[in-house]
Structure formats: structure tokens, C-alpha cells
């Protein structure tokens, strides 16, 4: 289980610029494709204080499930569990109206419900 920065998307110039010496911390401009359309998402990644974290944003549209899955696949391994959190309203922080976050605690597993509570994995399993 590994948190890893996709170096090919790292922004190395400007106010948020970094290089590989920053480890997994930095700003990444990730190019994604949906059908014939290419677009970018902005990702700020970091690890520290017991957490691995990425924030994912687009200028005028909140990232959807597919985008969050694509970013998760770039920064974590397929079998890593990460989460989006809905904290108490009193703890909300909203600097960008179209930004979502993925989190994983370092050194402990995220408790997961049994998959059957979500639904069947295959259509044949539906009674």
C-alpha cells in the first residue's frame, strides 16, 4: 500500500512549483480524457500529521466520481482504501467551491463495511 506522486504531472514552476525532492507533496496538473475531450484537474497532494491527502479541483465544475477514481488511481494502489470525509458542519473549510478531497490515515487501516451492505458485486447475485 503506497502513496505515490505521479511525477509526470508535477508542476515545477511558479508559486506552487516543486520537484521530486518534495516527495509526495506538491501541486499536480493532471490531464484526463473523457471520450474525445481532454481536460485538466488541479491536485494538491501532501502527507504529514498522520495523513495522506489530495485535494482535487476544477475551475468551474466539481469533480465527479470518475474523476475522483482516476486521481485515486494515480496517487494510490488499486487495493488501497481511501475516503472522502463529511466532517461536522462546524469544521467545514471551503476555499474553493469546486474542490473535493481524498484522505488515508497513515499506519492504520480504514474500517470498511462488508461489500454486501452496498449491493451485489455482479448482476447474477441479485435474488
UniProtKB/TrEMBL annotation:
<dbReference type="InterPro" id="IPR056111">
    <property type="entry name" value="DUF7694"/>
</dbReference>
<protein>
    <recommendedName>
        <fullName>DUF7694 domain-containing protein</fullName>
    </recommendedName>
</protein>
<feature type="domain" description="DUF7694">
    <location>
        <begin position="43"/>
        <end position="105"/>
    </location>
</feature>
<dbReference type="Pfam" id="PF24746">
    <property type="entry name" value="DUF7694"/>
</dbReference>
